[in-house]
Structures are given as structure tokens and as C-alpha cells.
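The instructor's notes for this session suggest beginning with a concrete chain rather than abstract definitions. Hand out the sequence below and ask the class to guess, before any prediction is shown, which regions might be ordered.
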Amino acid sequence: MANSKYEYVKSFENEDEMMYPNLIVVRIDGRNFESKMLSLIVSFFASLYVAKWREFFPTKGMISTPSFKSRVICCPSMEVLQAYLAWRQRECHSKNQYNTCLWMLVKNGKSEREAHEVLKGTQKQEQNEILFQQFGINYKKLPSMYRQGSCVLKTEVDDTLKISNNEAPVKRLRKKVIIVHSENIASRSFWNDYSCLCKEIGGFEQNVNNIKQEYVKSFQSENKFSEVQGFEKPNDEHALKLMNSCAVAVLEEFNDIVFAYGVSDEYSFVFKRNTPLYQRRASEIVSATVSFFSSTYVMKWKEFFPKKELKYPPNFDGRAVCYPSYEIIRDYLAWRQVDCHINNQYNTCFWMLVKSGKSTREAQSLLKETTMMDNGVVAKSHKKAVVEHPNIIEDEFWEAHSLILEETSPRSQDVLSI
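After discussion, reveal the predicted structure:
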């Protein structure tokens, strides 16, 4: 396919690759209830969270859309990974013990402020005494999931496969995902109990007692989905409208997003120049935005596909790119719309040939060397998100909507786009 003059904007993109042999940990934190790898995982997690809600809360509706901010943690050695796991479990224990005391005090008549004052400066033993003496609760008897957190890992199990009635069953090993709880997930004994962990990652040489402070400081595919869901080719109007509706929800949720452009299975969101969102940490901005979009997609599915079951949780890849001037952000958006026209025109020809009886290979061969529909633009007009389908390549649209990118000026400042 032809290239456009606007493709130079791709040079501003940086890969989020974490170099081998670093061990990568993606941490997801819940919000709204009190690199590509990162965005795919957090997007898929958010989709599953919404899809599984009814399974665990059959009588309770989901009132607000969840999103999750996340970070990629590089662990250059097994020692660092061990320290990270020990730190997270100790945080789990201390926060859960404090919160258990807090809410028991609140349930027994204290205000939240009064409960915080009672617990101010208390240590582990004092909190244990409060729970036992005032409420008859032995903290160590509470469910392990509350006190220790949960470990999800893949282990190998024997699987018996019977190919036919005339042949003997065949035994083989397969991977099975399990959830386990342990008092010390960073201990050698726990790690060594699961040979798959040692095999896939490595083992711990010794138990960890004190976590080094410097460690703690450092810690501080859509195509498959569309096929499974049976989307109309080359353009499924309901799927495109669902994407647009999700983009509107994103603009309404994140005040610092001033403009969005969508095509097919992608959306670009432009943030105002001086956004302080998440201290401008790219990973947290991307993960919060993409997880909110994913959650909204699942929540709104029935609105656009009332008779079609959501068979497979969607996930969306995302990245943050800084563009240094107003002109370049204009060229970026022009590039995406030019790409939209080129790809959609090709795909329309391709699928019409296939529907007329050609094989996919024959259709590709016919279109080889041949030399256009977009989802839409979402912009904020008087602080209300609206969907339009204009030409954003030429000046006319921007002259008529000069206030959209006003907050990305002066032109010498970086503009953030994801």
C-alpha cells in the first residue's frame, strides 16, 4: 500500500521494550473503588473484570466503570524479584490489618476520622489487641486471601487424553492456572514447592529478611476478537459506533483529554499541553486510559449488540507519544486519517471480491500494487463530547474549531497523544 507524507510522525514513537535479562512485573492498582505488554495486560484485565462481575455479584449492578493504572517493574536479578514479592506481601498484611481495625471501629459507631485517630501510630501488636479485645477477632484466623494476598501461577498437571475408543489413553503434561495462598511468597520453601516457577524464572538462593530500602524506592489482538465475534467485513457499523461511544466516555472521564480520532479498531486521544495527570508518567496515563476504554467497551456491549453474546474479552494495545509542536500533532492526525482512507478502500475492495467468490489469496493478488471510512472524531464542545466525521487533514476543520487544540499551544511545548 502507498505511504503518505505524514508518516514521519512515527519517528517520535519509542518502544517500551524492557531489555533481557530483566524480569518484568506488571502491577495493577484498582481505581474508582476506593510498552505494549503493559497496555495489553491491563486492558485484558479490565475487560475480564467487567465481564466476570455478574459471576461474583449476581444481585449487584456495576455502578461506575473501573479502570486500573499500572507500572512495569524491571527486576534485573532473582534477588530483586524476591525483594519485590516480599515487599508487596508485607504491604498487603499491614494495610489489611489496619483497614480491618478501621472498619470494625467505624461499624461500631466511630466516624472514619475518629477511627483514624484511634489507630494513629499503632503497631502490629497493638492492632491485634484492638481486634481481639474489642471485637473478639483473632486476626490470624481471618481468611488467608485477606491477610496474605493471592498468588496466581501455572503449574504442570497430568492430563489423560483418549484419542479413540480403539487406542489406549495417552498421558501428557499440561499447564494449569491455580490460585494459592502462602504466609511467605518470597521464601525458598514456597518457591521450590512449585518446580514450574524455578524452571521458568529461577530459584531463590536464600530467604529474605530485611528488604533493602533502595529496592523499595525503585519499585515505587483485535483481529482475533473481531473474527470470534463475527463482525461484518469490511466495516461493522455497530462495532464502530461502540468504539465511538467508548471514546466519548473516555473524554467525559478524563478532563485533560481535548480531542480523539478513531479508525477501525484504534483511537488516538490528545491531552492538553500542560496536563499533570499521574505526574505525567506515561505508563500510568496509558494504562488508566486503556483500561477505562476496555471496561467501557464490555459494559456497553449489549447496548450495541443486544442479540450477540460477548464471546471473548477484548484487549487494546496502547502507547504514549510526545509531539513537540502543534504542527506535528496536526500531521499525526492527518497521517491517521490518510491511513484510514487507504486501508479502508483496500479492505472494501478486498472483501467485495471475497464475497463475490474469490479466495482471499486471489483477492490479494488482484489488488496487489493497486494504487477510502473512519470511525469519527470526538471533540469537546463547551465541555461536552461530540462525535463528528470531518476531514481533519485540511485546514478548514481546524480553522472552524480553533479552540479544540488551544490548550496544546504555545507550539513550542510537547503535546501528549496516546
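Then share the key points. The CA atoms of residues 321 and 417 lie 5 Å apart. The chain has two domains: 5-17+221-417, 110-211.
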